[in-house]
Design brief:
The protein is built from 14 helices and 20 strands. With 444 residues, it is an alpha/beta fold. Helix 4 runs parallel beside helix 5 and helix 8 packs parallel to helix 9. Bound molecules: iron/sulfur cluster (2 copies). One iron/sulfur cluster (SF4) binds next to loops.
């Protein structure tokens, strides 16, 4: 006879802590985890999610792990645990669209207006949801979900706790009510102090709105957590001072320090974001200043768990030693690539400059189109492939990279899978009067 969920309750099985305890409602599917190590375990699809299918998925997961044929068998989180089925943590990330375009984020390229109603799905598995379940909102920008307000209300009215990870551009009445009730918290990454840096990092100009919304939320709740992801574009002391000045002005009680994840890592970093000694000093400065102002400050494990250090209370603390992970073989001449949050900023930056696209492949051609659409004049294209030299793309003759790299005062545009190699080559052969812009693939 086929096994049932009840047959496993309280028994030791090979699984991870998420089984029976977590569900992620993602944009395109429903998963048990968000595991990067081996890939998330998929519980099912949004369209045919039901109580029966949820239970069948858990049973399938248990059987597959038992047989050794699940992705979970390769995951370090899989071990012998006592199986319970009380869902204590639910993430709601129903869309990959966002009205911000944070420079380090790719979760804003989804379709505008996307996002499904999570309530019918939650109702289906409500019998398994623990009374103390914690709901974590993310995405994309969750406030853009057409069902956001009613979903916040549903969670709140059912007595669950929730955290809304939002960019703060849209003000949510239901969030304010849940904050006021004491069952919600808000987490927002500000990543800048000044309006200029904010625009540079977030790619939108709603700085004043965001701070006004923070002020309004703060009026009803202490549970507003402002996060600062430190990297080479926002690590100036004046940025941090201004961020703290704005935070104290609205009486913020909690600040979270993080590093930009792709810059703070074990592997040598070729770019486009960097975490140098300056950024290391910045995180410590931010920490010290928070302490001086009696702001509760915590260290995020998102980046800093890469080389974790803990305090006497076993809480993650800031790294005490600087670890230089810059790939100096790539940045050999100190020409760090620059990058922009969106196409508008990119075009603003390259207009009236001597721009050279490095690479006559498909991404280079797309970038050329983007430049032409935006009426950028005088674009040149270079490549290392001798069979391409002298040929034309839209009337532009492809030139020999090695010859052109010896010139001065050019801005090299790199894009695509060879971008890091091209950054290295420019550093190796060009002088410091040249610049590099690393164009985000999604933007072209
Ligand atoms: S064992 Fe790993 S892959 Fe499997 S569900 Fe758990 S975290 Fe995800
Ligand atoms: S607010 Fe920024 S980080 Fe968050 S989803 Fe939008 S673009 Fe990404």
């Amino acid at each position: 006879m086929r096994k049932r969920i009840e047959d496993y309750l309280g028994k030791k099985i090979n699984a991870c802590e998420y089984i029976g305890h977590r569900i992620n409602f993602n944009a395109n599917n429903i998963t048990l985890c968000h595991e990067a190590e081996v890939g998330a375990y998929i519980l099912g699809n949004v369209d045919d999610f039901s109580l029966n299918n949820y239970e069948l998925s858990l049973l399938r997961h248990i059987a597959e792990v038992e047989e050794g044929c699940s992705i979970c068998n390769r995951c370090s989180k899989c071990k012998s645990i006592k199986f319970e089925n009380k869902i204590a943590y639910i993430t709601i990330n129903t869309s990959d669209y966002c009205n911000s375009s944070c420079i380090y984020c790719d979760a804003h390229y989804g379709k505008e207006g996307s996002g499904y109603n999570p309530i019918p799905l939650l109702e289906k598995v409500k019998c398994y949801i623990d009374d103390n379940c914690f709901f974590d909102w993310g995405g994309g920008e969750p406030t853009l979900n057409p069902y956001f307000e009613e979903s916040i209300r549903w969670i709140s009215e059912n007595g669950y706790r929730q955290r809304i990870n939002t960019n703060g551009i849209i003000y949510s009445e239901e969030t304010e009510k849940a904050l006021d009730k004491g069952t919600a918290s808000l987490r927002m990454s500000l990543d800048a102090g000044t309006k200029e840096c904010f625009y540079r990092v977030k790619g939108h100009d709603k700085y004043e709105d965001v701070w006004n919304h923070i002020r309004a939320y703060r009026k009803v709740s202490d549970n507003i957590y402002l996060k600062y992801n430190v990297f080479n574009l926002n690590s100036e002391k004046k940025e941090i001072d201004e961020f703290l000045s704005k935070s104290t002005d609205v009486d913020i009680k909690h600040i979270i320090i993080d590093a930009e994840i792709s810059a703070y890592q074990r592997e040598l970093n070729k770019g486009p974001f960097f975490f140098t000694r300056k950024e290391f000093d910045a995180i410590h400065y931010l920490w010290d200043e928070c302490k001086k102002k009696n702001i509760d400050v915590t260290v995020s494990g998102y980046a800093f768990s890469v080389r974790p250090e803990y305090d006497e209370d076993k809480q993650l603390k800031l790294p005490s030693l600087y670890f230089d992970n810059i790939d100096w073989e790539t940045i050999s001449n100190g020409i760090f690539p620059d990058i922009f949050a969106n196409t508008t900023q990119l075009i603003d930056q390259i207009k009236n400059k001597d721009n050279i696209i490095f690479g006559a492949g498909s991404r280079g051609k797309q970038l050329l189109k983007l430049c032409q659409i935006n009426k950028i004049k005088g674009i040149r294209i270079i490549d290392n492939d001798s069979t391409k030299i002298g040929k034309q793309i839209d009337g532009i003759i492809i030139e020999d990279a090695q010859t052109v790299l010896k010139e001065s005062n050019n801005t090299f545009l790199v894009v695509g899978r060879y971008a890091a190699e091209q950054v290295k080559e420019i550093n190796n052969h060009a002088d410091k009067s040249n610049k590099i812009i690393w164009v985000k693939e999604f933007d072209i």
